[in-house]
Structures are given as C-alpha cells and as structure tokens.
C-alpha cells in the first residue's frame, strides 16, 4: 500500500514528464463497433474513388489540349491561300503534299466542335460519379464519428464517476468539465469528415502520380525529386501545431480554473471587493495561453510560405524541362506535358492540403491522451465493481487496527497516526477532539473513500477492503454537517437514499426527521425544487431533508458528522430526538463539538493528533481528566445559560460548492421554472467585433497586405500557365525557347514574394487574433463580475455554464477577425484579379464560365448556413448534459456515499441523446452540400470548354485565351469556395460574439462602478431597516422579508435570532447590497442604501460567514484578500492572524504563511478556515462587522479564543450577529427575534428574559417561535 500515495501525488507533475502525443491515430477508433467500422470502410472507399476523379479528368484535359494545339497549327497553315486540306492532310493547291522541315506531313481537318462535345460528356459523367461518392464519403464518416463520440462521452463520464475520491482531490472539477466538452470535441474533429477528406486527398496524390508516370516518366521523376520538400514542410507543420495546441490548452486550463473558482464564490469576491484583483489574476494566466497562440500563428505562417515558395519553384523547373522534352526530343505532346505536370502537381498539392487534416488528427490525439488515460485508469477503489463479499448478517462491529493515513493530495501531512479503536455494534460512539485531529477522516475511511496507508479497518472482523463497496456503502447512512442536495425536487432527493421507495416511505422518513411539516407548508410540497446545491432551502431544512434521505436507507450503521449543527434550537431539539430514535439498534458514530449532544453516548472517544487517546463513558472520561475533561470544562464556563439545548451548531462545509451565505443560493422554484423562452441571439455586427481589435490595427494592416499579395498569386499563375500553352503553337523554335525561359524566371520571382507574404499574413493575424481572444476573455470575465449577485442565481448563469462560455465563445470570436479577415482579403483580391484578367481577354467566354460561379459559391454558402443552424442546437444540447456532469462532479462525495453514481451516469446519458440525434441529421445535410459543391466544378468544365471550342472555331479566338479565361475564373471560384468554407467558423463566431456582447451590454441592477452613488468621510455605521420587503428574484412567490423594521446605532451590536428560514441571512445580504429590497428602505448613516456607492459601502463592511470561502492560494494571500485596495505588509497579516488566534497554528505548518489552502480551502480543517476568514475580516478594518454564525464551525477550545477575538474586533464597530446558539449573543446591545421575515420582539437579553415571551421560551425550552 506504500506506493499508493505517490501514485497519486504525482497527479500534479506527472503530466509534464510524458510526451504529449501518445495515442496512436488508430487508437482513436477504439470505440468503433463493426457497424461503425463498416460505415467507415465504405466511406473510405468512396473517398478513394472521389480522389481518383480529378486525375481522371486530367486525361480528358490532356487530350483536349492536344486537340486545341493541332487545330491552331492547322489554322496557321491554312492561312496561306495556296494550301488546302485533302484527306486530313494539308496539301498545296496544285496537289503535291505539303511537308515541313523533317519530311513530316501536317495533319488537318480537326472537327473541333464534335471533339469538344465528346469531352463535355466525359466531364458530365465524372461529375455525376463524384456527386454520389462524395455524399457517401461525408455522410458515413460523420455519422460513424457521431456514434463513436457518443460512446466515448458515455465511457468517459462513467469512468470518471468510478474514480476514487482521492483522484478528485487531484483533478479540479473545472478542468474535468472542460475536458468533457472541449477535448472530446477535438477527438470528434479528428475522426469525422477530416479523415475521409484526408483519404480523398491521399488518393488524388497516388492517382495523380500514376497519371504522371503513364504520360511521361522523365518529367514525373524530375518533379518528384522536389516534392519531398513539400511533404516535409507539411509534416513539420502538423507536428509543431499539435505541440503548441497542447501547450495552449494547458495554459488556458489554468485560467479556466481561476474563473471557475471565482464564479463559484462570487459572494465572497463581491463582499471583499476583490473583482479587480480576480480579473488581474485571470489575465495573468491568459498571457501564457496567448503567447503559445502567437507562436502557433507564426509557425503556421513560416511553413505556409515555405510550401508555396517550393511549389512555384517546382512550376518553373517543370515547365522549363517539360518544354525541352516537347520541343527538342518530341517525347511529349503538349497535352501529355499538361497531363504529367498537373498530375504531379495535383498530387503534391493534395499532399499539402492533407496537412490541415493532420493538424486535426494531432490535436485529436493530444486531447485523446488525457481522455483515454482516464478511461484506462483503473480506479484504486472501484465503486461499480461486483467484487468483494457481501456478508449475510451484519452485526456492526467496526475496528481500526493501527491505521495511518494522509490525503493523497497532501502526502506530507499525517492525518491519522496509527489509530486503533473499537466501535461496538448497536452502541453509539462519539468522537470528540479539536478540529483537524482526524475525526471526519475516520468516517471517510470507513466509507472507503480512501484506503488507509497502513493498518486496516474491519467490519465484524472482515477487512473492509475485502467487502463489496456498493454493498458496504448501502449499510451506511450518513448525515453531514453541510449536506449536499441535488437540483431536483425534495421527493427525488430523498429517493436518492434508496431506489424504489414508495411515497409512503418518503412521508414516513420525513416525519421521523421532523421535515414533514415544513414540506407541507411549501406551495409544491414534495415537488418543490431545492435549487442547485439545495440553495432554495435554509440550513435547517436542508439538514432535515438529508436526515430523511439517510433514514430511508434504513442503514445498519449511522454516521452523524455534526448532523444538527446547522439547526436552530427548536428544530435541533426535535431532530436530535429523531436521531435518537434512529440510533436505536444501530451502530452509530457521532462527531460533535457541542458536547451536550453526545453526553448520553455509550462510548466517547477523545482524539488528538490523529490518535484515539482515550475512550469511555461521559463520567469515566471526566475522572480521567484528559482531552475530554478540558473540552467539557471549557464549554461549561460559557454555559451559564438555563438550558443545555441552547448550545447547538458547529456548522460549515466540507467542500462547499456554493457560496458563503447559507441560504443565499436561491434558484428558481417550480412556479416559473424554465418556461421563459431563450431569447433569440442575433449575430453580432462584425464592425463591433473589430472595434475590440482596434489597437492591433498595424498588425491587421500588415496581415491584410500579406493576404492581398497572396490573393493575387493565383491569377498571375493563370496568366503564366496559359502563356506556356500558347508557346507550343509558335513555329519559330528560338522564339519559343526565349518565351519559355522568361516565364520560368517570372515563376521564381512569384515564389520568393509568396514566402514573405504568407509569413506576414500568418504572424500578423495570429498575433492580433490571440490578443483579441485574451482581451475578450478578460472583458467578458470583468463583465461577469460586474453583475449583481442575483444574476448568478439564474441557472443559466451557473459557474459551469459561465466558464464554458468564457472558454469557447472568446476563441470562437477570434474566428471572425484575424485569420478570417486574411481569408476574406485573400479571396477578394483573388476574385477581383481573376475577373479583370478574364473579361479583358474574352468577355463572351467569361460570361459563360461566370454563370457557374454562383453555383460554386452558393454550395459553399449553403454548407455554411446548414452548419450554423446546427451550431446553435449543439451548444444548447450539450449545455444540458454539461450541467448534469458539473453537478455530479462537484458533489462527488455525497453521490459516492449514497451509491448513486449509476443514476447520474444514466441521467447524463439521457441528456446526450438530443445532441447525438442532431449530429446524425447534420451528417446527411453536410454530405449533400459537400457532394453538390464537389461536382459543380466538373459541370462548369463541361460547359465552358464546349463553348470555348465553338468560339475557337467560329470566332477565331486563340485557344490560349480559352485556357486563360477558364483557369482564371475557376481559380477564383475555388477561392470563393474557400472563403465560403470558412463561413461556418464565421457564423459561429458571430453568434458567440453576440452572446458575448449581450453579456457586456447587460446593465447590472446594482451598479458596481467606483463613481455612481455617494461616498462620505465620517462613516459612522448607523443602520436602519425600514419596512423592508423582499423576495429572491428567482423565487418570487416566497416572501422572505415581510416588513423588517430594526435599527442599530454606531458601535452597537445587533443580534438576530429566530428559526432557520426566517430571513436573518437575507437581511445581511440586503445590507451588503447583493440585493435591493422590493419595498421599504435600508438606511446607512441616514442615506438610502441604493444611493450609496457600492464599492465604498462594501469597503466599510467586514463579513465572517458560516461557511467561509477561501481561494486556492496561500494563507497569506487569503488574509490579504480582506483589503484589495492596497498591498499589505507581512506585519499586518501576522498581526491580524494573531488577533484571530491563527498565528500559532500557521507557524506549525511546514510552509507557514505560504501554505496553499487547496481548492475551496479543502486542505484545512473547519476551525482553521474560520479563523483565516476572521483574520481576513479584521485586516479590512471595517466600520460594520457582519457575523453570520461565525463561530459555529469551531470546536470548544478554538471557539473560546475566537469568540474573544470577535469581541475584541467588535469594539467600536457596528456589528450584526446571526446565531442559533444563544449563549454567544447575550452581551448584544439589541437582540431582535425574527419570525417569517419580520421582527417580533427586540431588546437586551435581560429585557427579553423579563418579558417572558418568545425569546424567553427559546432560551428555556427551544419551543417554536410562532
């Protein structure tokens, strides 16, 4: 077992050691069934056939060229009136046969129109073939990929849900969510249409060479000699891009987890005014991603330039050598020259164009690495495994034998140190001890969330590692102190306890847990939605639902981890009674800080430093005068209260995903559930996107210049190419040679220019695009943090959904600028130049060819339109699944404890059905458009060459012009197609941008700006609530505050007491201006709160809430968070830590103040977190202090000291205290007793006790407040 922790802890650094690319390409298809394989094979064959179409067309093209050249020569000869054509041979009029220099006769009588008609039929035939195969090629591959991705998603999620809890300690939830969405999409790109296009291009490559070799092997070899250079560039580029993409992803994942953390704890950020600081922290992490992105752009630019340069140099070489073969050795006819040259060229080009596919494959493989690693990783503790015994009879004796343990994410801190103890069946055993002594850890080991490092745990003498996990966990009912509820109805939450229970069982369980009455008071009763994380319920309500959930399991073993701490007196008494009933005949383990609740336990075990130091009954331990004795005496000093029942409470959260204020995260209830329609997002105007890129205009300009030059390269090529064809009909050989040499030199010049302009375009747009992405992410994040807190209550703005939007939308917007502008400029200059050339040479032919352009262009546009329609749906559909996965991953402990992994896996799989269906529909439509786009060009050739033949014969047009016009316009057509093939990105970008701008344009209901509202110097801290009425915006049907009327003078302490759900925490949130009251006013120093500057107001308030949220940074930085307006010296931090009695504990840690606290502070015990939070509030030096059950999470020792610290901190400050435990608030100047959102009585402790009304009852009996 020794290895175990290392295994884990490497979870941080292991990534850097391995190479990024380890997944073989064919391993991407591990999830294909025979049916998928069949679809892919057939699709692949179609792609092969499709690839052969273009080289086939070349054969036709070559024959056609020969026909034209022969016709031209004949026309030149017959221009002499003395010659005529007899029996297909040119003869003089006097009958003798005309011979040229080498005694050869000249052929004549070419019927050019008949020939052309035949060629046109060939073209049409090829075109129809292409139409059919290219449809199948795309449709089959895309739908096969959709099926595999569906399977990967399911397998991955199922595997993640099987991982042991230690694995989740090492992988942040945000990162896992990103993987589920982004990385799997990358795999999808690598195994879908890209593969079929790759096969098609490679097949063109092979057939192109074959056509070349058949035509003329010498020329082919010469051209081949240079092609490795092209291949090399393509290969290197793909490698580099994959590498960089991996790096960029890693860098962004860091920023993503910052965003996730901040948005999850938005209330804390707002309360401490940390928005700007967080934006900076986020931005810092973006810089790294940006730099990798720029590098990627530059490298692509260099390689592209290199590629084009080589290609043009090849042209020069091939034409020069080819023309030698035609003229001097007569080995080739002009047609074969064209056929060989284009065959090889087409082959090389297609090899080059196959490289973007390689890029997709490479990034797919990089993404698959992490996904498949997880899928292949065998969990240390597999909750789905069928292995292990199930005992027939469970008595319930639990024993720990020398158990040593540390958390996998912190191997250097020993939590349990050879702990041995026995928990007898049917007895109630209580664990007590200071916080951080390992009490909760023992419970987690018993649930088998972790395996012990050394030693073993036994149940009835069986090592629990030999028992079946699901079965073991089904014996255990656990009630945690901060229970996690799932975002569904109350009844469903209770059903999670045990599958297949009837409604009567549920009602019975809620009655036992004392939850029945409050549930029946809710408008929808058992069908009330509890909101995300149970945010709609007050602490006490959540707790009782959780107890009902535990009881319905009818467990043999009950684990109560401070189960009653979040309750007020009245509910606590009753729940305690319910728990006492539940404990009968079960083995029970109770963890508590309030010793009164465990006095009657059968055995009490005292913990210290991860050891069980003493055990016995209450009285035994008091005589021992050990740990327990000190704890009891400490607590009793504070207990000069009439009743024991009053000191309830330690409350806090193990891994709170929600924010600090307990009742706060309200989500919508059933009444207006998600009926309101999604508002339509209009795509954003490009001009506005560009505005954000304004400061990069020099880059944009340079890039555009580069793009313009690149665009004009193709038309120039059309001119040069047709010029070469023209030279073959020149009779004078020297003239012919001179022309050819001139043309070759021009080709070389074009090559060099091309290199620089490509590089320029790649680099400049890469740079401006990455800068834009970063700026948008930053601005978007800023805009999110500017929203009022109520905005985050809307489930559409859950932290998961917002982080995904930051990650994907911003990078999509980049698609609308940057490289996109480059493409557009490139295409426009290309089309412009081509048209000018074509029309200046022959407007008639140009018009015919132009008729086909709309079709070529349209097919591209059509493709784009279809894809964007789907882009919207896809995103929506995946978001629903994303919410399931984020909820599941965030609450993994609770799910594991309830053995509900499989339920979540099933829900997730149901959510995947919709996107899967739309992906299959997409496959067909995409296939049809692709097929149409592919065959149009063949039809265009058929028509235009046929008409060209007519013009040549009837209008004496030189055939060179025919080739020039057709190649110029077809080239511009492909450019059009290219521009339109980019349109999917473009449209996606516009929609993403629109969503982004909607966020930026939203005016928060409560302005956070530094200038709005008034500030004043002598802030006193006088507070008044005047007839405040309030309902949470997402739950308008429940009145939380109903005419709250209470005031505090500067320096006084006001204590709110009352049952849970009566609006105590809500009043605090109104004061912080997280919300504004619906009616009535909150006055601060006599000024209405909504006229006060928000940052100014919050700067005067320090808050310590019941479950403090800490950030994933060091202890010192967490304390500094108290005042974000300035940088703070270490002395101040230490000083605050001393005041909060934190200093001594920090000094015992290996890294002292630099110790990281872990995500959400998970590395610290509850008491430690609480003291950090208090230090954070003290550093702020606030005028108003809000304590929302600030000490409830502490054990007695720390509580005494912290209470002292708080009393110290309260001096001279206005203070509002919320407490369930009445002992802590006797000294308050005003005690306000609340019920149903209004104050029913107020006064000092003495006055209220004398009144003998509600407060007196609360203190003496814990009776309900009417």
Percent of residues in beta strands? 5-15%
User: Structural class of the helix and strand makeup?
Assistant: alpha/beta
Total of DSSP H or I helical runs spanning 4+ residues: 40
Largest sheet: 6 strands, mixed
Helix content: 55-70%
Low-confidence stretches: 1-21, 637-679
Explain what this protein looks like in three dimensions.
This protein is α/β, with parallel strands linked by helices. Helices cover 59% and strands 9% of the residues. It is built from 40 helices and 22 strands. The strands form five sheets. The protein has a six-stranded mixed sheet with strand order 8-9-10-5-11-12. A six-stranded mixed sheet has the order 18-19-20-15-21-22. Strands 4-3-6-7 form a four-stranded antiparallel sheet, covered by helices on one side. A hairpin with a 2-residue loop joins strand 1 and strand 2. Helix 8 (217-264) runs antiparallel to helix 10 (275-329) and helix 19 (618-624) packs across helix 20. The longest helix has 55 residues, at 275-329. It is elongated and about 145 Å long. The chain starts with a helix and ends in a 6-residue tail after the last helix. Mean pLDDT is 75; it is low at 1-21 and 637-679. This is ATP-binding cassette, sub-family B (MDR/TAP), member 11a. Residues 398-634, 1023-1261 form the ABC transporter domain. Residues 41-363, 701-988 form the ABC transmembrane type-1 domain. It is found in: Cell membrane. Pfam families: ABC_membrane, ABC_tran.
């Amino acid at each position: 077992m020794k290895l175990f922790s290392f295994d884990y802890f490497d979870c941080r650094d292991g990534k850097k050691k391995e190479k990024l690319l380890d997944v073989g390409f064919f391993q991407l298809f591990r999830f294909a069934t025979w049916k998928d394989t069949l679809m892919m094979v057939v699709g692949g064959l179609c792609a092969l056939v499709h690839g052969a179409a273009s080289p086939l067309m070349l054969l036709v093209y070559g024959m056609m060229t020969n026909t034209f050249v022969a016709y031209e020569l004949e026309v030149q000869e017959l221009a002499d009136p003395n010659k005529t054509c007899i029996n297909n041979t040119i003869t003089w009029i006097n009958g003798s046969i005309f011979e040229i220099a080498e005694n050869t006769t000249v052929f004549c009588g070419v019927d050019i129109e008949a020939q052309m008609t035949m060629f046109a039929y060939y073209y049409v035939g090829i075109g129809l073939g292409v139409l059919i195969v290219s449809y199948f090629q795309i449709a089959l591959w895309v739908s096969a990929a959709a099926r595999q991705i569906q399977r990967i998603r399911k397998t991955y999620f199922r595997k993640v849900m099987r991982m042991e809890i230690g694995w989740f300690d090492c992988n942040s939830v945000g990162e896992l969510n990103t993987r589920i969405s982004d990385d799997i999409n990358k795999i999808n790109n690598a195994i879908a249409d890209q593969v079929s296009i790759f096969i098609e291009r490679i097949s063109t490559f092979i057939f192109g060479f074959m056509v070349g070799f058949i035509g003329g092997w010498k020329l082919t070899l010469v051209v081949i000699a240079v092609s490795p250079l092209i291949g090399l560039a393509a290969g290197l580029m793909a490698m580099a891009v994959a590498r960089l993409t991996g790096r960029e992803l890693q860098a962004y994942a860091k920023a993503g987890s910052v965003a996730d953390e901040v948005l999850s704890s938005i209330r804390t950020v707002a309360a401490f005014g940390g928005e700007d600081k967080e934006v900076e922290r986020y931005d810092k992490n973006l810089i790294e991603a940006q730099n990798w992105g720029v590098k990627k752009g530059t490298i692509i630019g260099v390689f592209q330039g290199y590629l084009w340069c080589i290609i043009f140099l090849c042209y020069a070489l091939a034409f020069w050598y080819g023309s030698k073969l035609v003229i001097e050795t007569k080995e080739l006819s002009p047609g074969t020259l064209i056929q060989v040259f284009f065959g090889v060229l087409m082959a090389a080009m297609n090899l080059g164009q196959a490289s973007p596919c390689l890029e997709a494959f490479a990034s797919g493989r990089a993404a698959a690495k992490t996904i498949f690693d997880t899928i292949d990783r065998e969990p240390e503790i597999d909750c789905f495994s069928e292995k292990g015994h199930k005992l027939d009879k469970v008595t319930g004796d639990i024993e720990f034998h020398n158990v040593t343990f540390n958390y996998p994410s912190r191997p250097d801190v020993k939590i349990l140190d050879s702990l041995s103890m026995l928990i007898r069946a049917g007895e109630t055993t209580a664990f007590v001890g200071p916080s951080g002594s390992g009490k909760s850890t023992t419970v987690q080991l018993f649930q088998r969330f972790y395996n012990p490092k050394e030693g073993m745990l036994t149940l009835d003498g069986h090592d629990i590692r030999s028992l079946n996990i699901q079965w073991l966990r089904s014996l255990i009912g656990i009630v945690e102190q901060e229970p996690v509820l799932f975002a569904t109805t109350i009844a469903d939450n209770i059903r999670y306890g045990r599958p297949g229970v009837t409604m009567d069982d549920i009602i019975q369980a809620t009655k036992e847990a004392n939850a029945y009455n409050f549930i029946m008071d809710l408008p929808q009763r058992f069908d009330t939605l509890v909101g995300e994380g149970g945010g709609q319920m007050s602490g006490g309500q959540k707790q009782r639902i959780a107890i009902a959930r535990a009881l319905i399991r009818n467990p043999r073993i009950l684990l109560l981890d401070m189960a009653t701490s979040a309750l007020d007196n009245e509910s606590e008494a009753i729940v305690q009674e319910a728990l006492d009933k539940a404990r009968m005949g079960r083995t029970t383990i109770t963890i508590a800080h309030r010793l009164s609740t465990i006095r009657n336990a059968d055995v009490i075990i005292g913990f210290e430093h991860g050891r069980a130091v003493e055990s016995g009954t209450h009285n035994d331990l008091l005589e021992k005068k050990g740990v327990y004795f000190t704890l009891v005496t400490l607590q009793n000093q504070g207990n000069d209260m009439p009743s024991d029942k009053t000191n309830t409470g330690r409350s806090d959260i193990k891994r709170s995903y929600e924010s600090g204020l307990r009742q706060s995260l309200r989500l919508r209830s059933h009444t207006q559930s998600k009926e309101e329609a999604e508002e339509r997002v209009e795509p954003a105007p490009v001009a506005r996107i560009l505005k954000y890129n304004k400061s990069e205009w020099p880059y944009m300009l340079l890039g555009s210049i580069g793009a313009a030059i690149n665009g004009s390269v193709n038309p120039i090529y059309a001119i040069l190419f047709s010029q070469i064809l023209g030279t073959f009909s020149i009779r004078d050989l020297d003239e012919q040679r001179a022309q050819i040499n001139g043309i070759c030199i021009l080709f070389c010049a074009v090559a060099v220019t091309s290199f620089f302009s490509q590089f320029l375009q790649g680099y400049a747009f890469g740079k401006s695009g990455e800068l834009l992405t970063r700026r948008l992410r930053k601005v978007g994040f800023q805009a999110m943090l500017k929203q009022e807190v109520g905005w985050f209550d809307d489930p559409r703005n859950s932290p998961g959904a917002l982080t995904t939007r930051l990650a994907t939308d911003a990078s999509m917007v980049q698609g609308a600028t940057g490289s996109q502008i480059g493409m557009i400029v490139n295409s426009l200059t290309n089309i412009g130049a081509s048209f000018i050339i074509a029309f200046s040479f022959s407007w008639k032919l140009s018009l015919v060819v132009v008729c086909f352009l709309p079709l070529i262009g349209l097919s591209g546009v059509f493709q784009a339109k279809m894809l964007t329609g789907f882009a919207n749906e896809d995103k929506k559909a995946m978001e629903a699944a994303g919410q399931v996965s984020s909820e599941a991953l965030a609450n993994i402990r609770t799910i594991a404890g309830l053995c509900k992994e499989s339920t979540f896996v099933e829900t997730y799989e149901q959510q995947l059905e919709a996107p899967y269906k739309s992906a299959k529909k997409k496959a067909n439509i995409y296939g049809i458009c692709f097929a149409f786009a592919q065959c149009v060009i063949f039809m265009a050739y058929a028509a235009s060459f046929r008409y060209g033949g007519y013009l040549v014969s009837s209008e004496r047009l030189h055939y060179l012009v025919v080739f020039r016009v057709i190649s110029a316009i077809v080239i511009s057509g492909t450019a059009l197609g290219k521009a339109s093939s980019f349109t999917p990105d473009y449209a996606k970008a516009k929609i993403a941008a629109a969503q982004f701008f909607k966020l930026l344009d939203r005016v928060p209901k409560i302005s956070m700006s530094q200038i709005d509202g008034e500030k004043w110097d002598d802030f006193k801290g006088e507070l008044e609530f005047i007839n405040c009425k309030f309902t949470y915006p997402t739950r308008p049907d429940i009145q939380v505050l109903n005419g709250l009327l209470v005031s505090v003078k500067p320096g006084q302490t006001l204590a709110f007491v009352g049952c849970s759900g009566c609006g105590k925490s809500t009043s605090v949130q109104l004061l912080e201006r997280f919300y504004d009251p619906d009616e009535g006013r909150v006055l601060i120093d006599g000024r209405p709160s909504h006229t006060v500057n928000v940052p100014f107001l919050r700067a005067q308030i320090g808050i310590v809430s019941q479950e403090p949220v800490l950030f994933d940074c060091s202890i010192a930085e967490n304390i500094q968070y108290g005042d974000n307006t300035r940088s703070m010296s270490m002395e101040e931090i230490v000083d605050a830590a001393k005041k909060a009695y934190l200093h001594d504990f920090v000094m015992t840690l290996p890294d002292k103040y630099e110790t990281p606290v872990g995500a959400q502070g998970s590395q610290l015990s509850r008491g430690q977190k609480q003291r950090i939070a208090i230090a954070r509030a003290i550093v702020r030096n606030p005028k108003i202090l809000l304590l929302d059950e600030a000490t409830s999470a502490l054990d007695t020792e720390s509580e005494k000291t912290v209470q002292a610290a708080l009393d110290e901190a309260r001096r001279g400050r206005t203070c509002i205290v919320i407490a369930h435990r009445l002992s802590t608030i006797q000294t308050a100047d005003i005690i306000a007793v609340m019920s149903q959102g209004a104050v029913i009585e107020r006064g000092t402790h003495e006055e209220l006790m004398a009144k003998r009304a509600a407060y007196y009852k609360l203190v003496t009996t814990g009776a309900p407040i009417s």
